[in-house]
Specification:
The chain is 16% helix and 31% strand. By secondary structure, the chain is α+β, with helices and mostly antiparallel strands. It has one domain: 4-Layer Sandwich (Deoxyribonuclease I, Chain A), CATH 3.60.10.
Length: 223
């Protein structure tokens, strides 16, 4: 939230594309911006600060209102699923990772081509076996679907860590250093050559957000 107060920090990394869950709608900071939300203070924003053009896919399904399929055109053409996994008070099986699982199955045709899935999944494998309510699918179910299409987590590939045993948290709940979890992910298809993965440090970002930025670098000659 209050992304306007963090914009300078984000732009300092010279990003190509930025996905911001819990993003306010405070006016376009770039001509290439897509924002979705019911509350102007808290939606999801996707920004391009480079030669990449972004547009909403005509296949967008509003029942997954914060899982946004985008067509990206530029130096490399690919599809992007921007994720902010939400609670669902109407259908409790569709909460958090449950809705990610449903959305990935709905957008399954996107899995056949160059694809990046990135955002706040609000979930970790450690909760798969003990959800408060049954879900349509858990994180391992999502991973298996993507694995079949050779779509892998950038973080886990780069650091060679197992799901549920991550050593670098992406969330410090309520800014509390003792409540740390890894809940933000970037999955990329085999077309992308991974160069670097970095997660922001608590000391640098805790006063700005309880989520740390997940920064992924791919080789521009990946295809």
């Amino acid at each position: 939230m209050a992304f306007r107060n963090k914009l300078n920090y984000v732009q300092g990394f010279n990003p190509d594309i930025v996905v911001v869950p819990e993003c306010e709608n405070f006016g376009k900071q770039t001509t290439k911006c897509i924002w979705f939300g019911e509350n102007r203070s808290k939606g999801i924003g996707i920004f391009s600060y480079s030669d990449f053009e972004i547009e909403l896919s005509p296949d967008y399904n509003a029942s997954f209102k914060y899982i946004i399929p985008l067509i990206v055109k530029g130096p490399t053409n690919f599809n992007l699923l921007a994720v902010w996994a939400m609670n669902d008070s109407i259908d409790i099986r569709k909460r958090y990772i449950g809705q990610v699982w449903l959305a990935i199955n709905y957008y399954k045709e996107l899995l056949e081509g160059p694809l990046i899935i990135i955002g706040d999944f609000n979930w970790n494998k450690i909760w798969d076996a003990k959800p408060k309510y049954p879900l349509y699918g858990n994180l391992i179910d999502v991973i298996e679907i993507l694995k079949d299409k050779e779509i892998k987590s950038a973080y886990h590939s780069f650091y060679e860590e197992e799901f549920g045993k991550e050593t670098r948290p992406t969330l410090f709940m309520h800014h509390n250093k003792n409540k740390s979890y890894h809940v933000d992910y970037c999955f990329a298809s085999k077309n992308f050559k991974l160069e670097n993965v970095e997660i922001g440090e608590y000391s640098d970002w805790a006063k700005k957000s309880d989520h740390m930025p997940l920064m992924i670098t791919f080789n521009e000659r990946q295809f």
